[in-house]
Design goal:
single chain; mainly alpha; Four Helix Bundle (Hemerythrin (Met), subunit A); 9 helices; 67% helix; 0% strand; elongated; ICMT_MeTrfase
Length: 201
């Protein structure tokens, strides 16, 4: 038979054990594996890396246009593109003026014989440029290749078109001299062309 002191001691011991079980336990520090698994459960959209990448993709394409005044290189690139566009538009202007001025005399085929209706066109745009249609097409085609930053196409266009127009003009001018004689020789002497290599033909 237990004594009252022993009974009281057992009650106090049981109460102490119960309080110890109810007390909050300190959290153990997470090891690397646990931290990695916790991080991997983060949604991809909530990830800081994803947010940074999204911000870059969203604002980078429009940044040169929005803040161009703060970046001299963007101003230079824009000016270069506008210059190439102006070159192409100038070429189209020359070719269109040639068509409007020559009217029915404008032909893609070089005529080898002279009809009574044929006249030598020396007014309008032909008063300033001997071959406005050819020069206009050359400027239009090569200017577009520079504007879209395609150096390979620019070189190919310049070489192929240059060779084509030089050969064509050489044949055409000999034909015009045969058809119009001294009138075309005088016209050729007084009116140059914007392509330097054609001036020597």
């Amino acid at each position: 038979m237990s004594s009252p002191k022993n009974h009281e001691y057992h009650q106090q011991s049981s109460l102490a054990n119960r309080n110890q079980n109810l007390a909050p336990r300190p959290e153990r520090p997470l090891n690397k594996t646990t931290q990695a698994s916790t991080t991997s459960t983060c949604s991809p959209i909530e990830s800081p890396t994803f947010a940074s990448t999204l911000s870059t993709l969203t604002f980078t394409p429009i940044e040169p246009l929005t803040f161009a005044s703060n970046k001299p290189q963007n101003i230079a690139a824009t000016s270069f593109a506008l210059g190439c566009l102006a070159m192409s538009l100038f070429g189209q202007f020359l070719r269109s003026c040639a068509m409007v001025t020559a009217k029915t005399s404008f032909n893609h085929i070089i005529v080898s014989h002279k009809d009574p209706s044929h006249t030598l066109i020396t007014h309008g745009i032909y008063n300033y440029e001997r071959h406005p249609s050819y020069v206009g097409f050359f400027f239009w085609a090569t200017g577009l290749q520079i504007m879209i930053h395609n150096p390979i196409s620019f070189i190919v266009y310049a070489l192929v078109l240059g060779k084509f127009f030089i050969d064509r003009v050489c044949y055409e001018e000999h034909t015009l001299i045969r058809l119009f004689g001294s009138d075309y020789i005088m016209y050729k002497k007084n009116v140059p062309t914007l392509i330097p290599s054609l001036n020597s033909i």
